[in-house]
User: Fold this.
Amino acid sequence: MKVYVYDLPSKYNTDWLSNKRCSNHLFASEVAIHKALLSSDVRTLDPSEADLFFVPVYVSCNFSTVNGFPALGHARPLLASAVQFISSQMPCWNRSNGSDHVFVASHDYGACFHAMEDVAIAGGIPKFLRKSIMLQTFGVEYRHACQAVENVLIPPYISPKSIRSTVEMMPENGKRDIWVFFRGKMEVHPKNVSGRFYSKKVRTVIWQSFNRHSKFYLKRHRFDGYQSEIARSVFCLCPLGWAPWSPRLAESVALGCVPVIIADGIRLPFSNTIRWPDISLTVAEKDVSDLANILEHIAATNLTTIQRNLWESTNRRAMLFNDHIEQGDATWQVLHSLSQKLHRSYRISRVSNQLNAEM
Assistant:
C-alpha cells in the first residue's frame, strides 16, 4: 500500500503548532499520524502510484479562550478550503470524488465536526466528505448520523513519553494500592445550557454512590501527574462524557489498569487486533450504582486472567502514536486497517468485474 501525503499550505496544519498543546492534547492524533506518515515507508511522493491520499488538516488545535477546549466552529470551512485547494491543484480528488482520501476527525462526534451531539447530528457529515475515509475516535454500535461514512476507529492521543516515564517509575513488585480509580469531571448538578445532562448523569451517580466508599478513589479536580494514580490502580473507571469515548481508556490499557467501560453501545478501536473482552470490563449505564458488587465479583473470579491479558505488550503498543511508526503501534494499526479496506474493495471490484464479464 502506498499513501500520498498532501503538502498543504501551513495555515492548514503546521501554523497551529505554535501552541504546544496542539501536539500533546487528547485530540492530537491528527498531528501524530501526519508526522509519522511523513517518514513512513508507505509514503510515496508520486501521486500516480498512490492507493490512498492523506489530507493533513488540524481542526482541533483552535483552543477556546473561554474554557480552554478546542473550538470547532472553523473546522468545516477550513476543511472545505483544503478540499478546494487540492481539487484545483491535482486531479486525484476529482477522479475518485474523494473516496480514496483520508482525513482525521479526532474529537467527540467525528466526521460531523461539532462537539455538541444535537448540533452535530443536525448538521451531519459535510457533503464534500461523505465519500472519504475518516480516522475517528467516535464510534458506536447503533446507527448514528456522524459515522455514516467509511471510517477507522482510533484511540485518543496520549503521550508515549509520558506513558513510558510513568511505567519506569512503577514499583518493581507491581503492587497496586488503589482498588477503583477515577479522576475527572463529576458534576453533581450537570445540566448544561441546552438542557442535556453531562455523561447522561452516569458520573454523578458514581460520585453520589461511591465518593465515601473506602475502596473507591474518586477525585473531581485535575492533577497533572494523575497517570501515576492509574499505574497504582486495579480498576480504572472509563465512563462516557459528552461522547462515549474517553482518553482514560487508552491510558488505562497502556498502564495496566483494568478499564471499566461505562458507555452503552461504544465501538472500540483496532478490534481486529485487540481482544477487548479479554482485557476490559463493560458495565451497562443502568447498572452503575452496583459497581462495587460487580467489581468484587470479578475480583473473586477472573481478575488475574484479565490483568495478565492486559499487560501483554501488544495492547500497550497499539494505544501509542509514535513520532516514527513502530510495528504494532497506533499509526501502524491505522495503516493495517486501511490496507484491509483496500483488499476488501479490490475483492468486491474483482467479483463485480467477473459477474459483468459473464453476463
